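Sequence in, structure out. Go.
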Amino acid sequence: FEADGYAPFISRVVKAAESEVRFDVTLRPALSTQVTVLLPDGRPASGADVGLVSQGARLKLVPGGFSRDNVQSGGSLLLTDSQGRFSLAPDESITQVIAANAQGVAEASPGALAADPTLILQPWGRLEGTHLSGGVGVANSELLFLYGQGILDTISCDSAAFRVKTDREGRFAFSKVPPGKHRLVRVMAEKNSDTSSRSSDNPLAEVIIRPGETTVVTITQ
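Output:
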């Protein structure tokens, strides 16, 4: 439940089997923070995606913004206006605010934005590397780039957008990844029976991505 000038209220989970549900809600007056998102060159970032990270938000980062495949919770994904601004309502469930567009990405806590309501986008980084086993390149190894310590219920990298396969010599590249400390895993197919299978993630390495730079890693197993 949302209203201008009031803190939002999020209900408990309503199950599909519940035929009728009643909520008695009282909204608390609260002032929103007007946040400005700037491009790396200082110009306003109009039309940038803004993700409000919280439990159950289910945000998916893609190269250049956030996925809009309708799995995220309502109200957790915003857009900046023509001046690069958006309104951040006071909400104790929000742990992080992330802005992203084709030129860059930035994140800050609500507390930091209350003190300084400006987000300056940092250029996306690039990740290149080689996957080796016994000194030999691992061909067709399927690798997945994971966002920090994020989990599917809060924020994660879109599994289709941040998935690559190594070439014949074990080389791979992610052309656009967010700055920060993240993880790289190998997707392994496991056969359950003659007719079914499942996949599992095999942790490979932690990677530190610097804005606007190419990070090169060698992974050995």
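Check: DSSP finds one helix and 18 strands in the chain. The CA atoms of residues 41 and 170 lie 36 Å apart.
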